[in-house]
Amino acid sequence: MVQMAAYLTGQRLMNRETGKANARRSTEGVCAWELVGTSMPLGEFMNLTQEVEKRRNATVGRHVIVALPDGMAAGQQYSLLKELAEFLNRDLQVPVLIAMHTNPQENGRNLNPHGHLLFGGRAWDEETKTFAPKRIRKLYERYGGGPKFMEALRREWEQIVNASLPVLVPPVSRLSHARRRNGRIPRRHLGYHATAMERTLCKQTRDGEFNALIDELDAHDAALADVRKRATEYRQQLETKHSELEPMRASESRAIAALEAKQAAMEAEAKVLLTNPRVKSTGENTTPKQAPEPDPSPEDIDVLAPYPNPARRKVALQPTPAELEELEELLRPFRRRPPQESLSLEEFRVRQGTNDMGA
User: Fold this and answer.
1) 3-state DSSP helix/strand/coil % of the chain, to nearest 5
2) Which of 99, 177, 218, 267 sits CB 3.0–4.6 Å from 184 for a disulfide?
3) What is the pLDDT of residue 285?
4) Residue 331: pLDDT above 80?
5) SS3 101
6) In the chain, what are the domains?
7) How many CA atoms lie within 13 A of 139 on its CB side?
8) Torsion angles phi and psi, residue 33, rounded to 5
9) Distance between CA 267 and CA 192 in Å, rounded?
10) Is the pLDDT score of 214 beyond 50?
11) Which of 65, 58, 56 has the alpha carbon at shortest distance from 122?
12) How far apart are CA 3 and CA 23, in angstroms?
């Protein structure tokens, strides 16, 4: 416990059991640390936690590592880690050491932000500064055992993280790909040395190559899911347009049926006319055509026939004698008089004088 606490916090702690001082080589990755649930100094509390266990094979403490949400501010990440430590202290009555670590920055961004939680195996009484005689294993019984307690701890961390995420960010899940049944393949964990080798030497390890293939497969799956989503949207739009065009399609079908019926009737009538040209179709019954009248000759044309049929026959008029006399009276002023005799001047004077003498 003392050696682990020295590594997590970057502090130099004296181990009373071994008589040696434990310290971390470099404190570059340690962002912050805190002992939640007690005001006792870190080194003293860790030595007490280690000394309370008398068995040689005893489990003196438990170490939990959690991944912090990437993209958040460091202060917000640390507050999430402290909230989880307060849950453990409240539920198990044990002080919890928390430490926030990050790898060296790359392009101004912290790599792999994560948190450590270290706590003992017995409940702590802050007033008497002593541990309980029974181990916290008995406290696991209300959860149904240690594995179910870890499931409850994962559930609590899931709720804490999701409550802090923005609305548009997808929530995290404590379930594995197999439990979610999403068909995805889990990535392999890279250790410290493999990660440093890939980052500094640009040399891909076997696990790193496997993870790269999984990332490529996930990218293809995401693209395929996007295509399916757009296809679903287009299908919904087509169904909407189809429902809007359904009345128009029904009216068009009725119009086509009417045109086909009319075309069939015209074809039947054409067949009848081709069979007998002198028979005219009148729907259901047919009657023979009458013989056409012959064209009138010029002698039969009556120029005085009233409009609109000036080509009536004289025989068809048959005027009466009274109508002929009335017509003659009407045409008399327009009749041309017979030409008079041409007289010389002497003959005219003689004829004029004769007329005067007679008068």
Assistant:
1) 50, 15, 30
2) 177
3) 47
4) no
5) strand
6) 2-174 (3.30.930.30)
7) 19
8) -150, 160
9) 91
10) yes
11) 58
12) 7
